[in-house]
Specification:
globular; Aminopeptidase; 6 helices
Length: 168
């Protein structure tokens, strides 16, 4: 009998599994850009533990294994910032990333006066861009990260449903 994936708040004990998953899941992004200095690969375990203490951090579990994660926080102007959404490579393409995105949006909406959500991804990351557009995010700008990767900044009104798709 198969197990189902559950999404819940991360615990302090999850730090090492999240750290290892993040390193594994972002390898394909690093390869896409020919750049292994991207922030998810260079983040320290201590820095991740600090995020666990201050941010909304969700994990997707398959049994006891962390197979997905996402982080979020809301700033003083009501922007829910979503970061480091990742899914284990063997489970990618099955909707788990979309489930994690919806879950972090719901958590952020429930913790503060969140008026919009903002996230970013690499300009060449077509599968990520597809996921975010399908969830209702639209490009609002871009920037170059400190590691040299060209990023697309996307936003979504917090009043839109998680599965809202903008027609092109």
């Amino acid at each position: 009998m198969g197990m189902s994936v559950t999404i819940s708040a991360a615990a302090e004990d999850d730090a090492e599994q999240i750290f290892k998953l993040q390193y594994l899941a972002f390898q394909s992004e690093a390869e896409l850009y020919g750049n292994y200095r991207i922030q998810p690969l260079t983040q320290s375990l201590d820095s991740l533990k600090a995020e666990l203490a201050t941010d909304t951090v969700l994990v997707a579990r398959l049994g006891d294994e962390v197979v997905g994660t996402v982080r979020g926080s809301t700033d003083e102007d009501g922007t829910g910032k979503i970061a480091k959404l990742c899914v284990h490579p063997r489970l990618q393409g099955h909707g788990l990333g979309a489930r994690l995105l919806r879950a972090v949006e719901q958590e952020l909406a429930g913790t503060a006066e969140t008026t919009r959500y903002r996230l970013h991804t690499g300009r060449k990351s077509e599968s990520n861009l597809r996921l975010y557009r399908k969830a209702g995010y639209v490009a609002v700008g871009g920037r170059t990260a400190s590691d040299g990767v060209e990023l697309v900044i996307l936003e979504k009104d917090a009043g839109l449903p998680a599965d809202y798709a903008v027609s092109a």
